[in-house]
Amino acid sequence: MNAFPIRAYCLVFFLAATFIAAAQGDALVFQPLGNDDPSVSPNAYKQEVAQQVYDILVKARGDNRFDPPSFELVGTETNGAKILYLENRILLEEKAYDVCRQFGADSINVLATLLAHELIHFYEKHGWTSKFSSSFAGLEIGDTLGKLSTKIINETQADYLGGFLAYSAGYDVFDKGDEFMAALYQKYELKEFTEGYPSLSDRRAMARSSAAKVGELADIFDIANLMAITAQSEQEYQAAQALYEYILEDYQSRELYNNLGVMATYEALMYFNESEMKYHLPLQLELEFKSSRGSGFAEKREALLRKAANYFDYAIGLDAGYAPAYLNKACVLTLLKDYDRARFYAEKEALDKAGAVNKHMAGSVEVLMGIIADQEGKSQDAARHFDNAIALGNPLGEYNKKVLMGESVEREEVMSFSFDQTEQIDDVDLLNFTRRPKGKQKIALTLNPKINFFEFVLQDAPDNSKVMLLESKLESSRRILYLYHMTEKGFTGKTQKGIQLGDTRDKVKTLYGDPVLSLLSTNGEIMKYKNILFFLGPDQKVRKWGVYENTK
């Protein structure tokens, strides 16, 4: 029976493994009497599964400035896993793969994090010291460089960022890295102490510490996405930006830069009035903006739009084929009235990068082309573009066509925090929670002088859930709390309408209708409804759900 079903889980884990660097690569373990015979062929199915996980990780990283290493599952029994810097190649031994299989339902999580660890060595350029020292082979400086303590730092960083990479790719939390290291040592018949290596006890301790740090970063990423999809005010857009910026201090990806650009654009839209921007732009998250500030804040809003454009450029710099960043930049250029460049980024760049078969992108481009045409006084061209968007199934086409024709349009209700909503998890009233928190406080972080993040695990609740709380003082001295109560892995309860973990997206839509907003990412989708959010994995099944409130 195959232990690795080819399916998508949402996971995060942390492998705390310290590699010993040779001149050409870093190895997970070293077994002097291991099998180095390259003629041993691994199982084809294992190769297929490992390759699929590896490809998902590369895509999730989204950094295509350099060709990623090739990958191969091998039958040797010496290193467990290894990156060969000079050959730009990553090897995983079948024997190490089999250790991953021992963890049952978590086996795919272990595999993803192990491979992500190796990839981080590449993306963070950890091979520099090895390559540099090898050029001085035989000299004292070469030996010194090969023993630098930065090797330990690199391994710790690979553990930490590798765990987060696995999470961003849609894999779930694996918090048994210490057990994995013990199983690996046993499988390779390694001693507790091996010359040149940390002890097994140290490795297990590193694994536990690393897992906790990855969990914190993943939770901050979660609440950043939650703030992005529930934000409705300038202060909330600023808070979401602060969260993404905190993550970027450690981890860079095209999605993070793109999300930052979208939030800055939303904030800029708060400085437009309806007469200046009456249409809905095809940004990834399309929200309602009601503002009376208008053009008196032209300098402020232009600065925000330039900032957003720079973030989209950073995303494009990491991946020149990342279509959403081109479309979002085209939206920003439209707001800046740079229509010629906006057309180019939308029609040429975004559409070409997404491919002609991508109806969603094609429809979004038609929407933007219609907005640009109307701004230039070409109402007939605008109508044609909106009609094209409607034909492609884009709902913004229909809405904007009605605006163009001067028809009465009721703007789609923006679902805000509701105090009469009864949807709860484990019978916890979030507003009462702010006055009398319960459970175990797991995280307390100061992200910047005006934003604090707290997490409570409700161990006394019937099921496994957590409350995340963001304290913000961005606008004034008045404290605003944003609360999210989320289910955890293994939660068995149901929503009031009967949704539980593992249910399909179609079932959610059947019971709750179309979401007010939807945020797509590499690890799935967040569907927003009134006071309730559903997190879907890449398999379009509910992996967790949550409710939200604030104290404004």
What's a quick, concise take on this entry?
It is built from 18 helices and 13 strands. The protein has 552 residues and is α+β, with helices and mostly antiparallel strands. β4 and β5 form a beta hairpin.
Could you please describe the fold and organization of this structure?
With 552 residues, this protein is α+β, with helices and mostly antiparallel strands. The chain folds into 3 domains: 20-217, no CATH class; 233-404, Serine Threonine Protein Phosphatase 5, Tetratricopeptide repeat (Alpha Horseshoe), CATH 1.25.40; 430-550, no CATH class. Helices cover 46% and strands 14% of the residues. It has helices at residues 44-61, 94-101, 107-123, 128-134, 140-146, 150-168, 177-187, 200-230, 234-248, 254-269, 298-318, 323-335, 339-354, 359-375, 379-391, 395-404, 430-435, 505-512; strands at residues 20-21, 25-27, 70-74, 81-84, 89-93, 440-448, 451-457, 465-472, 480-487, 517-521, 524-529, 532-536, 542-550. An 8-stranded antiparallel β-sheet has the order 6-7-8-9-13-12-11-10, sandwiched between helices. The chain is globular, with a radius of gyration of 25 Å.
Task: Please render the helix and strand layout as text.
Layout: E1 20-21, E2 25-27, H1 44-61, E3 70-74, E4 81-84, E5 89-93, H2 94-101, H3 107-123, H4 128-134, H5 140-146, H6 150-168, H7 177-187, H8 200-230, H9 234-248, H10 254-269, H11 298-318, H12 323-335, H13 339-354, H14 359-375, H15 379-391, H16 395-404, H17 430-435, E6 440-448, E7 451-457, E8 465-472, E9 480-487, H18 505-512, E10 517-521, E11 524-529, E12 532-536, E13 542-550
Parallel strand pairs: 3-5
Antiparallel strand pairs: 1-2, 2-4, 4-5, 6-7, 7-8, 8-9, 9-13, 10-11, 11-12, 12-13
